[in-house]
Specification:
The complex is a heterodimer of chains A (264) and B (291). Chain A has 264 residues and is mostly helical. Chain A contains 13 helices and three strands; from the N terminus they run ααααβααααααααββα. In chain A, helix 1 runs antiparallel to helix 13. The chains are: A mainly alpha (264), B mainly alpha (291). The interface between A and B is large, with 109 and 99 residues. Strand 1 of chain A pairs parallel with strand 1 of chain B.
Chain lengths: 264, 291
């Protein structure tokens, strides 16, 4: 009972600013700045019409979705074996390497902007979805390795040995015995990779010019000489929520699956 | 952890893709920066100033202020978000529709781009036209985050707690779900109460997840830029100017590049030092177990 109350209060707190955002997205700028309204007195879909009427907004959503998904798959795929190695074996430089990975999250992206553009121009990937997907691995791969390592270390090493003695080839053991044990970790890792790539605007905007332009690029257009376009920005915020909600809906089963030991 | 990690240098094969990918993105741009700095020195007219910039930065009273605010801010959000996230994770139902709903709503703040978060809160917290501001004023409290430093400070902290507690909660929830049922069954046989289960079963198994949560929240809060920049612009006065905003002001506003370069180096080292301290203290017990 107490649990439900705590959770309920928190969810209400989470929802208030989000409902406020929805309400803002249904109002004109004059109305937003004009006075306090709990619910819009004269709701309008004009802000959404602006977004859907402009091809660059739509393309932005599609582009973002493509590079974010590519980044998520790539990050989790390379992080899985690495996290396994870090959690199971000692090897030359393991501790330093593990910590070095995380230091890449500490460098402010602004420092890297110009060299990044030159690097991706030189290898001919500038303005492609791959450029952004690859660039975002800089902060997502270390994150994925760290989270997955945490979950893998929670699995007793006896399981690996028992499986080896039972004659499981390693790849089959990894895919069919080991991975299901850390399902919740893989789920939460994938979601976080998606999330951090989805909200990263600076690199995504800088590495693209026409073909792979993300939503971020169009979002900055809401700041114009005439001042902020609050309503359109709020509407864009509402729309950016949608893909993430879809992802968490599908990933939730992985996050929430518990496991029973001893099925080796 | 009864079986120790075995030594295996072929593990490098498992790690290689990650190392190549991250090194590609981290080291090549870094080399470019170094390269350019050399070229600049060759074409320009350099004057070697040695540790001058560092001395200037370290003695700057404005920097001391920004550093103090930064540490206080990171301390506050860590102190609030970790316990809250842990409690929330324990409150999420283990099955059913309630769980789906809770996970979806919980994750929502994470999915909004950071500049939009700041923008929404900017209006949301306004006393005259915003829900939060009007609500707090209606309670009889005099609240105005654009004019009073303390209110601005509270607003930035509350916004960050709103924004990032879900990250801790989701990590902890996934961590809790990864605890095998056998542990709970054993605890039940021993007649352990809720608190004993938390203290001796759940908390120890969550240590890895909590380490990650602490490091992530520390690094991200220590480098926070977009949200306070959009929400308060660092004001009123300097009350919500944190380190990265201070750095941006020196580099872009005053175009004081030598100063800014020295600053970013010190900044990076401070983050590195703190993270290393967190990491080693939180994995200390682990290492002792292994030894």
């Amino acid at each position: 009972m107490t649990k439900r109350v705590i959770l309920g209060v928190w969810l209400a707190f989470v929802l208030l600013p989000i409902l406020w955002m929805v309400s803002m997205s249904l109002r004109t700028n004059e109305s937003i700045l004009g006075g306090f309204e709990l619910f819009p007195h004269a709701p309008t879909l004009a802000n959404y019409a602006t977004i859907f009427g402009d091809a660059s907004w739509r393309d932005g959503y599609i582009n973002s979705t493509i590079y974010v998904l590519a980044n998520t798959v790539l990050s989790v795929a390379v992080a899985l074996p690495a996290a396994y190695a870090f959690s199971r074996w000692r090897f030359l430089g393991d501790k330093h390497l593990f910590f070095w990975l995380l230091t890449n999250r500490m460098s402010p992206p602004a420092v890297f902007l110009l060299p990044f553009v030159q690097l991706y121009q030189n290898i001919g990937l500038f303005d492609t979805h791959w450029a952004v997907a690859l660039a975002h691995t800089l902060f997502n791969v270390p994150l994925a390795v760290w989270i997955l390592e945490g979950f893998m270390s929670g699995i007793p090493r006896e399981i690996d040995e028992t499986a080896a003695i039972d004659g499981w080839p390693f790849p089959r053991f990894f895919a069919f015995v080991f991975l299901p044990l850390i399902k919740s970790g893989v789920g939460v890792t994938a979601f976080f990779c998606f999330m951090f790539s989805w909200v990263e605007l600076l690199l995504a905007r800088t590495l693209t010019s026409v073909h792979a332009k993300p939503i971020a690029a169009t979002m900055t257009r809401t700041v114009s000489a005439a001042g902020m376009d609050w309503g359109t920005l709020a509407a864009a915020g509402v729309l950016t929520l949608v893909p993430g909600v879809v992802v968490i809906y599908f990933v939730r089963n992985y996050i929430a699956k518990g496991f029973a030991l001893g099925r080796v | 952890m009864s079986v120790p990690r075995t030594r295996n240098d072929r593990a490098w094969l498992f790690v290689l893709p990650v190392v190549l990918l991250v090194a590609f993105n981290a080291l090549i741009p870094l080399m470019t920066v170094v390269n350019y700095s050399v070229q600049d020195i060759l074409t320009g007219n350099p004057v070697f100033v040695g540790a001058e910039w560092f001395r200037k930065v370290l003695r700057d009273p404005e920097l001391h202020g920004a550093l103090r605010r930064q540490i206080l801010f990171s301390g506050s959000v860590l102190g609030l978000e970790l316990p809250l996230g842990l409690i929330l994770a324990l409150c999420i139902p283990r099955t059913g529709r309630g769980q789906t709903l809770a996970l979806i709503v919980l994750a929502m703040p994470l999915l909004i781009p950071w500049n939009v978060v700041g923008t929404i809160w900017q209006i949301f917290a306004r006393g005259d036209i915003g829900l939060l501001g009007a609500g707090v004023n209606a309670l009889g409290l005099d609240y105005n985050y654009t004019a009073r430093a303390f209110d601005a400070w509270i607003t930035v902290v509350v916004m960050d707690v709103w924004h990032w507690t879900p990250l801790v909660a989701l990590l902890c929830f996934a961590g809790l779900r990864a605890i095998p049922d056998a542990y709970y069954q054993a605890a039940a046989i021993d007649g352990a109460g809720v608190w004993a289960v938390f203290r001796h079963v759940q908390l120890p198994r969550l240590r890895g997840v909590l380490t990650i949560a602490v490091l992530l929240r520390f690094m991200d809060s220590f480098m926070i830029y977009t949200e306070p920049f959009v929400l308060t612009g660092g004001g009123p006065g300097n009350s919500t100017t944190f380190l990265s905003q201070f750095l941006a002001r020196i580099a872009v506003g005053q175009f004081d590049l030598g100063h800014a370069a020295a600053f970013s180096l010190i900044y990076f080292l401070v983050v590195l030092l703190f993270s290393w301290l967190f990491y080693t203290t939180m994995t200390l017990e682990d290492a002792q177990e292994r030894a």
